[in-house]
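debug: dumping io for the single-chain case to check the tokenizer round-trip. Nothing else runs in this session.
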Amino acid sequence: MTEIDNKVAHLAIIMDGNGRWAKKRGLPRLLGHKAGVNALERIVYAAKDRGIRYLSVYAFSNENWNRPPVEIKGLMKLFSYYARKKLRDLVKADIRVRFAGRREGLPESVVQAMDAAEAETSDCEKMTLIACFNYGGRQEIVDSVNRFVKEHPGDPISENAICSNLYLPEVPDPDLIVRTSGELRLSNFWLWQSSYSEFFFTSSLWPDFTPEVLDEALNTFNNRERRYGGLK
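debug: decoded output
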């Protein structure tokens, strides 16, 4: 697929199935997450080659804190390691890195890795990679309202007020949200921003997700008619 064929400006992905991928192979769950990181790297560059301007991924949700402590610790180390290791490649590819979510409660090593990634890629322009980390859609809306009320006490809360106080208000809403592993739900991902997003569900576990499946999702999107509640 070439850039001219793609109509998706913002692609969002719920990367699901790392644990099941590992279990099917008799491997520890953390090795499934490592395989998921490899899949993410593959898809980041595939998305850039297809002209996608924004790629957001659900990396770690608020609810993921309920997982076993040993898995959470491994995920944090994995995130910090790859966030630093891949920086040079991302800068070379002209890919900017942003994060959405709360940083409170995260290990200092993770926060430092986030700060370094955002600072070192701030001038990149080809594509923006957004990692939703320690993120929850409901929490984002609550944080937005609280921020507005604090800065504008007594003012009425409007749709525009909420939009302008989201974690990344300048990022356009997702055109297409992809979820892997056969699950058919949003799981608290981009709740405000997904009001008119299209959806593509695949049974592929995230580590098995390929550029070919990505092309299938983009082609499906290209053949849909988006009316936003109106008529054409």
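debug: round-trip ok. The mean pLDDT is 95.
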